[in-house]
Structure formats: C-alpha cells, structure tokens
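Database export, one record per block. Field names are fixed; values are copied verbatim from the stored entry.
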Amino acid sequence: MVVVVADDPGPWSSQTEQDTRHFAKYANLPVFDPSSPEEAYEMVSYAFDLSEEFKLPVFLRPTTRVCHASATVDLNIISKPKPATGFEKKPDWIIFPSLSYKKHGELEKKQKLLSDRLSTLPFNRIIKGGKRGIAVSGISYLYVMEVIKEYALDLTVFKVGTPYPLPLKLVAEFLSLVDQVMVVEELDPVIEEQLLMVSAGKNNIFGKMTGDMPFNGEYSFESIKNAVLKFVGAEISDPVMVDIPKLPVRPPVLCAGCPHRASFYAAKTAAKNFEKTVYCGDIGCYTLGNAAPLNTVDTCLCMGAGITIAQGIKLAEKETKCIAFIGDSTFFHTGIPGIINAVYQNTDITIAVLDNHTTAMTGGQPHPGTGRTAMGMPAKPLDIEKILRACGVEHISTVDPFKYKETVDAFKNSLEYNGPSAVIAKAPCIALIKLPKTVRRVNEECIGCLKCIKQLGCPAMSVGNDGKIVINEPICTDCSLCVNVCPVGAIKRVDRNV
C-alpha cells in the first residue's frame, strides 16, 4: 500500500504547513520525497515493491511545486497486476496487546533493514565535490544543482530521496567526505535532526537549527541561492531590479452567480434582527465569504470544524447567535458527527448547508449526495435533509438561495428557534450549468448609490466613468440577486448577446 500525501509549503491552499515526514517517522514507515514529476512516477513503483517486501505501508510525499508541475515521463515501468488472493484469515489481523508487543518489536527490527535497502535506491545518491556538502531533498534539489551550475561551486551533494528512514550507509559515506554540511529541506528539520544525531558533533551542520534556513514557507531558487552562497562564503550581490509597475490586487472572489453569495447575503440580512451573530465557516469555496463586503466567515479551521466551533462559541456566549456554514461535500465528509453532538447537547445553533451539488473548490468531484461515484458510475444519492432529520434536527428549511426573501425568512426563523436548526440552500455551482439566454443590464434610472456593489461584491459588476454601475454581461448569470438590492429598480433583464 502506498499513501500519497501532498504537503503545501507556503502554504498556498492549506490550513497548516503540515510536514508528513513526521507522520512517517512517528509510525516508523518509509517516506519518499520526489524532486520532480518524473521522479514521483518512478518512486511509486519502488514504493509498492518496498511495501510488498517489508509488508508495510509506504508514504509518497510530493510538495506543492512538484504537484503543480508537468513533465514528459518514460513509461519504462510496466508492472503486471498479480491475481488477488482474497482475504487470508489469520490471527495477525486482530491487534490484541500481546500481538501489539510482538509487532512493535518486528517493526523496530525492520528499521535497520529498511535503511540498508533505501541506501541502494537511485533516489539516494552522492555527487562528489569539495569538503563542503549539501544534504537536500525534494524540489530543493533542483534549485541547489542550478545554483552550483550557475556559480561553478565545488560542493559535495547528498540527494536524499527517502527522508525517513535515512539511508545510513550513504549518510556515513557523505559525512566522511565533508567537514561542513548545509541541510536544505522545506518545512521541518527532519533530515537535519537525523544528521545531527549520526554526526554527533563531528561535522559542522548548518540549517534551520542554526538559523541559516527558514522553518516556514516555500523555497525558491533565489532563497536557496542566497543561503548556499553565504554557506560557501561567496559575495552576494543584489540584482539590479527593474522598476516594474505593481500588479493590481486581485483577491480571490466567489464567481458571478455563485449561490453561496446569495446564501451569505440572506443570512447576513436575517442576522440584522439580532444583537450579535458569529459566522463559523468551513473548508470550501464558501471560505471566501470572509472577504468584504460579505464578511460572513469569522472562523475557519478544518473540514467540519464550523459546526463544532459554533457550539463552543454558543456555550461561551449564551446570547450570541451562531450560524455554521458547511458545504454539501464537507457535510458528508465530517459534518455529521458535529451535528449529532449539537442535537445531543441541544445546542442552539443554525447549521447552513450550502448545497451546490458538487465539490466545487477542488474541481467538481462527486460526493454521496450527487448520485454518482468517484469513477462516474451511477449511485443512490443521499438526501441531506433526511440525514439531518435522522440525526435529530427538527427545524429544517430547504430553500433556493436566489429566492431572496424566502431565504431571509428561513434564516430568521431558524435563528429565532431555540435549539439546533438547519437551513439547506440548494442551487447548483454556476460552473456546472449552462449560462441562461438572458443577462442583467443597468439602465438610466441608476442613481450611482453603489449599494449593489458595496453589499454583494459580484465580480460581474464595476463602476463606470460616470460613477454608475456597469454589468459585465459576458460573465453575468442573471442570478437576479442584485435586483433585490437595487433601491430604484434600475437593473433589468435583457437578452444575452451571443
């Protein structure tokens, strides 16, 4: 079994800069760290072989830059699938304490064997050079080699393809060749700490522990270049910067016609009837509800946390109204246990399920409510309202978020209800449906109050040279939300120009 876990130094789209290598180390399992798409492809075959040989799961840990890259690969690894033998009944599958004791001992013995085996793999290798050395893993290896080539540096490079367990035979050889070592690895000092233990002070080791490399953030050619040149004592000359105008700020926004915008605006309107409302968000496109002008996401931690955080806030602030937003995909993933707890504890929160019939943020993957499997096969769709009722939620409203007044009333009634309640806002992701034959256009009645753009933030709207609203008709979806905001009725439906 090979477990692929992509780490996100930066982070670019994750909640944390998690370093999966710690999980591998914690579980005493090998982890591969590819430096390129080609290497990731090759590593998978070796990882499966290693898993079979040692009867252990194996991690493959590509980072952001490797995942976002594309490359041509040679299909030189063709493995014929072995016939399935089926489940083999034996006592080893039942982990009693006595078996755990035995298996732990076996796992510890495998560590030395694993290290020896990993020392033979092509992903771990030494490129001999001078008495200064660099131990490097992942995408940073390519940056290091580029720096060495560009500045003609005489360095010994230890390319680490398996950060845990380290290939100790190669480690010993590498440390014998150099006096000083710089460790270049994104995120935590996993390799550095192991080298410090093996070296036991015989080599001067520089890296994160010495403040020479940052713990956080994604490395680049520029950042590694500066660190390597400093390590070898070369002069670092600041490049001459060309004075280029800065790009305008382009924050991510919900799409024009996104049903989440309608849900957020309706919830915010309903909440005006109460002294204080806290909006607990979750993971998905709807996290963008935190931005102005909607400002309807106050917390966001991880999938399913919106519902449980809302319960905690409600317990701490009895008079505060709490709305927990959760998408349909996240509802199935981790939302249900929190809902059961809210019912069990009779916590007065409103659960807003934003059902856009897909997993929109990551590319439109199906979920148990869509009626198809991950392989595209038809499946029985699970009904969110029925699941909520089965969990014990009694006050439930299912609405079309683009029916503005109806949705506002649903949120208002839900907030007034004493106990766990739910509003299901059902409307498909705008990226999944065909644009209608009509759009909205602002006529001469517009008074330039800008209320629509200031309250909705729809990307199809902008301010013209005359200070009045202009609608970008090619991306307008005729969702009609703006019509409910305009105080003078200046937004009219017209045919789309094809």
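Remark 1: Residues 402 and 480 are 7 Å apart (CA to CA).
Remark 2: The chain has a mean pLDDT of 94.
End of record.
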